[in-house]
Amino acid sequence: MADLASRITKPDEEPAPAAPAAETKLDGDEEVGSALVDATYDVEIKLSDLQNEEGNPLYSVKSFEELGLPKSINDGLLAMNFKKPSKVQETALPLMLANPPRNMIAQSQSGTGKTAAFVLTCLTRVDLNQKTTPQALLLAPSRELARQIQGVILSIGQFCGDLTVVAAIPGAVARDTKVEGSIVVGTPGTVIDLIKRNQFDTKNLKVLVIDEADNMLDMQGLGDQCLRVKQKIPRTTQILLFSATFPDKVMSFAEKYAPSANQMRLKHNDLTVKGISQMYMDCPDQDKKYDILCKLYGLMTIGSSVIFVRTRESADEIKRRMESDGHKVSVLHGAYEGVNRDTLLDDFRSGRSKVLITTNVLARGIDVSTVSMVINYDIPMKGPGEREPDAETYLHRIGRTGRFGRVGVSISFVYDKRSYQALTYISNYYGIDLVQLSPDDWDETERKVQDVLKSSRAKPDYAPNAIKVD
Ligand SMILES: Nc1ncnc2c1ncn2[C@@H]1O[C@H](COP(=O)(O)OP(=O)(O)OP(=O)(O)O)[C@@H](O)[C@H]1O
């Protein structure tokens, strides 16, 4: 307990200020119009300031044009309102685009634009005139993330002519059809099945991207399937591994999987994103967690939020109870069928549903810019008997908010010695100061959370990629 106490700010202290500093200004939103910006808010964001701040993961000195990308791709970036690359884009892109192609292992904080970095590489490397020949394969751990990446490819590549991108996810490719597209994005199990059934010809693949690579290459999980994919692709295929986390135990395997790779690595202490204010709620016991959750929602008008729980059953149970208490919530986990899952996430993305209760299935990669709060209803644990704190999953979960310079709050619920110790371990691992919230002082809790959220609430219809950059 003493450990956590040294890491947390005392209840009567101010919460850590949300980055960026309160004096910075929020620019209008080019796409949705400046009328949406509430001028009375004094905490405002300016992405260009963050991108000029050395040491910030969004910092860059170059423009996309200087990275030598084709005009059609630059036009796509412009249409998405990407004015300047982030650090991972600026640093990794020239290395990935150099010839002869070299493998890459790249680590960068959550929400800092890794997807565009590898998508730009794929779009630059494939011959888009060969519309039916798969030349780039991107693998992700969930159907939601694969679909999201497919969307990013189609957006960035919107001026690249007749771009064909196939989603190789459960139920998407009929048994008797060939995978015909320049780029394929999928989950490893489905991709292996398609290769086995000769539906997917891999012999022309020039690039293989593995997103969330530490998770994908973990031999307790999807590692075996990723190895099988590698055995089926040409030896010359450029391999790109991306994640916000690369624990040492996976790293040696990653280095074998992508030999002689260029590497971009981060230290534990540099992994957290400043825009996410990390807090914890000291709950009296397990049973009170639910009441505290409802109280939190009752008190606060929060943008969109995600509640992470340990099991599918508790996700369903919390949904049932919250609904019977008059809250409108959605739930998504692995027990749901594919297309249902797509609808659920689409509802959440569009704001039709504002609260999403989920398991670790959505802990990684999902990019919904309106998410201003993440709740760790259960502290993530891993290993046999779930006895070890899962610092990686913690980081990915909280990273669903605070994306690309936005601000957000994460609240982790602790209630007993074990959960308290697990959070202590996680906060020490990343060197973070967690702010304590007390269920006995709701005025103070509300103030601490709202202090952070008011800047993101200034733009209720915050569209993805819609921060205006000077
Ligand atoms: N250069 C840029 N300018 C403005 N917005 C950008 C830029 N690059 C990426 N973005 C936006 O930033 C958000 C986060 O990007 P992305 O999803 O790629 O993060 P990530 O690093 O892959 O995060 P995670 O580790 O959670 O998967 C997206 O909404 C994306 O559109």
From TrEMBL:
Gene3D superfamilies: P-loop containing nucleotide triphosphate hydrolases (3.40.50.300)
Keyword Cytoplasm: no
Domain DEAD-box RNA helicase Q: 62-90
PROSITE patterns named in the record: DEAD_ATP_HELICASE, HELICASE_ATP_BIND_1, HELICASE_CTER, Q_MOTIF
Domain Helicase ATP-binding as annotated: residue spans: 95-264
E.C. number: 3.6.4.13
Primary enzyme class: hydrolase
Every Helicase C-terminal domain range: 275-453
Ranges where the record places region Disordered: 1-31
Gene Ontology MF annotations: ATP binding; hydrolase activity; nucleic acid binding; RNA helicase activity
Official protein name in the record: RNA helicase
Organism taxonomic ancestry: Eukaryota, Fungi, Dikarya, Ascomycota, Pezizomycotina
